[in-house]
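Put briefly, the fold is written as integer tokens. One such record reads:
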Amino acid sequence: MIKEALSLIKDELNAFLGRKEPRYRDKETAVLSDIVDQQGELVITRNDDTKRDNIIITLVNVEEETTGKAQLPYLKNPDNSVDIINPEIKLNLYVLFSAFSTMDEKERYQNCLWLISKVVGFFQQKPVFTHHNSPELDAGIDRLIAELVTLNLEQQNHLWGALGAKLLPHVLYKIRMLTIREVEEAPTAPFVKEIRMDGL
């Protein structure tokens, strides 16, 4: 579900950027990628000398949402039988949007700032993704809610140090709440309708 959620956001962000700037139309400006590989090299420029601008979408943290968590491992069926399952897990995804450009120095940084401002504008005009406003949303996802996360300078330093990359123009969003419920064949028990105390 994580891949499906982030792929939807990537596709809609690309469409939004294309509407705002013709040169980004029908291009994969926003890409799902880590920023550097295990050797510390920028992934997006590897074996590619093309002049381009990109928004790199990177998952940097996954957090369990414990508010309202179901405690009972039972799911009642229409026929009154009960499936024994583990409670679903609700996740919050911390997603980093970093602007990167291989354009000439004169326009590189300005393009990055423009892209970051458009990422903020994208989530400002559409902070909630549902099946109504995003028909491509995976059937297993009820809704996604985007919230801007503000890091102080120390937190930014730790984040980019952990990523192993040099600071890029960026913005961090918390994407709530992705529900994970894996269902396999599980024991089914009949629904208890009455309790009898025979022999007393």
